[in-house]
Amino acid sequence: MRNVTAAQQSIHVGGEWRAALSGATREIIDPVDATAFAVVAEGGVQDTDEAVAAARAAFDDGAWPRTPVAERAALLRRVAALLERDRERIGALESQDAGKTLEEGRVDVDCVRDAFLYFADLVANEDGARVVDAGSDEIRSVVVHEPVGVCALITPWNYPVLQASWKIAPALAAGNTCVIKPSEITPLTTVVLVELLLEAGLPLGAANVVTGPGGTVGARLAEHPDVDLISFTGGLVSGTKVARAAADSVKKVALELGGKNPNVVFADACSTPEAFDTAVDQALNAAFIHSGQVCSAGSRLIVEEPLRDRFVAELARRAQLIRLGRGTDEGVECGPLVSAAQLARTEEYVASALAEGAVLRAGGEKPAGPGYFFRPTVLDRCHRGMRVVREEVFGPVLTVETFRTEEEAVALANDTEYGLAGAVWTSDGDRARRVAAALRHGTVWINDFHPYLPQAEWGGFGKSGIGRELGPGGLGEYREAKHIYQNLAPRPVRWFAGAAEKDQA
């Protein structure tokens, strides 16, 4: 395997690892100490065009789209085995590149493995064409699914290899070819994943990668006429640009654009000391895993009024105890933010919240020392008019709102432009089901937060995006449905009178 941190040849086109055609490079920064630890190629428009051309040739004339389903599934399982083999190496690289803890990096690799195994099993166990009853023995009617074609896969910086797998695994399982553009901030583990695809035997050209900025590489992929589908995970502003650029060529678009996710806690969920401890613990996990840099982070705590003071006091106390540091160090629970820009963004949101009347209960500052660390922050007495409540911070910032009735809780939880995920905590089973049914979010947890299943679709309502990842629906994003109607006993229709009169004459 190549030493990916030393390789400036991070662009892969049609079977060749190479540098950017312009010779440009980018330093990859360790967010723990703000020093460079790797250098990658900084691709541009020409690199992107050549990658698309390679993917186009591989789809139109290559082996992968015509590879039997069982063989495609077998390759995905080989990739899963290689991920298991390289778990420690990839997990440590993900920890350094994205700033997360080593255990989080390991879990991400496990989830990538599970995604490849799930989509391998899904396509291998399908029944094939769906027979449509046309109401006649003389008609054979079936619906088949075919690959879309060339897929452009643009992934975010917070879960680089995990989010890449959610796109790459179903795209390849369906028989597509692809061009992958990882975030320019955290590209390293995606490059490693492409190496594993090649080691597993994926035909050359079926998976290409271009490292480079979204403003050039991503923008070119979105507008490129030879790209049939674009799948983008990232921010709302960039996602809308992708959708506009894709519209001219009417390509398929899938967007996952984040969320402003409510965590609703009813007082009856904390009726015992154990239940109270669990709800507080889960609220911490919801908000501060990976320093809050999670699209589904439970950044809006909506707690019933009688419980608020006790709950927030304990939440703030525990937040102050969270241990920050390098993710590979013993005892570290939370790493830094990914970049100086993300740190500045978080600081600005906290400052605006305090100016608008929020009460700081914990954190709210950068600790002394190098790197992009920010203390886990709890902001009490928040309301819907505050920017920090309406907009996605993507940092370790938790806002607290209160409610008095179930109807008010639902109204607050749904009062957002986003709709990715949410949770309700209650010991009342009927209430849990009512609230879950009323929440306009793509994933709703009851007495839990954050778990997902590769078998279940992931995506959101509203400005959280378009389409779904994972589950059968995630595979469906990378397919086109084709109806094949065969007349086994063709005969004249006699629709037009002139034709009938001629026959009779």
Give the SSE map.
Elements: E1 11-13, E2 16-18, E3 25-30, E4 35-41, H1 45-60, H2 69-85, H3 87-98, H4 102-124, E5 130-131, E6 139-147, E7 150-154, H5 160-173, E8 177-181, H6 188-199, E9 207-209, H7 214-223, E10 229-233, H8 236-247, E11 252-256, E12 262-265, H9 273-288, E13 300-304, H10 308-320, H11 340-355, E14 359-362, E15 377-380, H12 387-390, E16 397-403, H13 406-414, E17 421-425, H14 429-438, E18 443-446, E19 465-466, H15 471-476, E20 479-487, H16 497-504
Parallel strand pairs: 7-8, 7-10, 8-9, 10-11, 12-13, 12-17, 13-16, 15-16, 17-18
Antiparallel strand pairs: 1-2, 3-4, 5-6, 6-20, 11-19, 14-15
Helix pairs in contact: 1-7, 2-4, 2-6, 3-4, 4-5, 7-8, 9-10
Structure notes:
The protein has 16 helices and 20 strands. With 505 residues, the protein is of the alpha/beta class. The chain has two domains: 6-257 and 464-485, Aldehyde Dehydrogenase, Chain A, domain 1 (3-Layer(aba) Sandwich); 262-446, Aldehyde Dehydrogenase, Chain A, domain 2 (3-Layer(aba) Sandwich). Strands 14-15-16-13-12-17-18 form a seven-stranded mixed sheet, with helices on both faces. Strands 9-8-7-10-11-19 form a six-stranded mixed sheet, sandwiched between helices. The model has no long low-confidence stretch (mean pLDDT 96). Residues 20-484 form the Aldehyde dehydrogenase domain. Belongs to the aldehyde dehydrogenase family. It comes from Streptomyces vinaceus. Keywords: NAD, Oxidoreductase.
